[in-house]
Design a protein that fits this description.
CATH class: Alpha Beta
Strand content: 5-15%
Oligomer: single chain
Largest sheet: 7 strands, mixed
CATH topology: Glycerol-3-phosphate (1)-acyltransferase
Radius of gyration: 19 Å
Number of helices: 10
Length: about 290
């Protein structure tokens, strides 16, 4: 019957579309990964690896039809600092890598280091592997590695929610990256990312055919830790102020913030205004 959409046909078309997107993506990963691991060690500060990463992100975003609209580059300070961004989708790294300035090191899920070419680049370029849920000792080792990166004068990129959002709304922040900022004495730069959740949410095979391809990235002004008080208090204060800053940026471009407590559906239905976070009406949890 004309006009009827059969599930089997939709499934086949989605697999075909996924193949058209991810087979060339794999080829680009191999191409730029090869440049990184062969030419990178021959250049000062592995600049060829940085160039390859940037080109990989930009070319992959273009090939996927993603229109990255960025603002706030003037807020990025010189030297070491911690980019703190919300996390909506698996394509966030491509989007951020297309726009964020600096030779920043990425807190990367350890399983990514097992992927040929990509993993080889991540190891060579000094990105930091992270094991989620691996215990307090492993978490302390990751924080120590973060501090080493910052004291070497390099920026760091972390997703302080810990994992991608399942609802599209920003979740509370964890402490790891803020411990590193306080111990290294560097500022945090809030970053809001909006649009990638609708483009490719968790479990999707590809970025779809009719999804909105526009993605917004907004960089906020640097935030500094307080100089007085115990470390735990300074970390919590910096975390909460950063969460409020990212929330405000995110809501300015149409995003939302997950309310504390309740079911996932209830949290999705209640977006907390950034003003409430700043006033202490809804504080993020304090776990590491």
């Amino acid at each position: 019957m004309r006009g009827v959409c059969y599930p089997e046909r939709v499934s086949v078309l989605s697999w075909v579309r996924a193949g058209k997107q991810w087979v060339p993506f794999a080829a680009r990963t191999a191409y730029y990964g090869t440049i990184s691991v062969t030419v990178g060690p021959l250049t000062k500060d592995h600049r060829a690896s940085l160039w390859a990463m940037r080109k990989w992100c930009q070319s992959s975003a273009r090939a996927l039809g993603i229109d990255v609209i960025g603002e706030g580059e003037e807020n990025v300070p010189a030297g070491a600092f911690v980019y703190c961004s919300n996390h909506q989708s698996i394509v966030d790294v491509l989007v951020l890598g297309s726009f964020l300035p600096g030779d920043y090191k990425w807190a990367a899920k350890r399983s990514l280091l097992k992927i040929p070419f990509l993993g080889w680049h991540l190891k060579l370029a000094g990105h930091v592997p992270v094991d989620r849920g691996s215990g307090s000792r492993a978490a302390a080792q990751v924080i120590a590695r973060f501090v080493e990166v910052l004291k070497d004068g390099k920026p760091l990129l972390v997703f302080p929610e810990g994992t991608r959002t399942e609802s599209g709304s920003m979740k509370p922040f964890k402490n790891g990256g803020f411990h590193a900022a306080v111990r290294a004495g560097v500022p945090v730069v809030p970053v809001a990312l909006q649009g990638t959740f609708d483009l490719m949410k968790r479990g999707a095979r590809d970025t779809g055919a009719d999804n909105d391809r526009r993605v917004r990235v907004v960089i906020g002004k640097p935030l500094f830790a307080k100089q007085e008080g115990k470390e735990a208090q300074r970390v919590a204060d910096l975390r909460d102020r950063t969460h409020a800053a990212v929330a405000e940026l995110l809501q300015s471009v149409g995003g939302s913030v997950e309310a504390r407590g309740g079911s996932a559906d209830e949290r999705e239905a209640r977006a907390v205004p950034a003003e409430a976070l700043r006033d202490g009406a809804a504080r993020p949890r304090s776990d590491a």
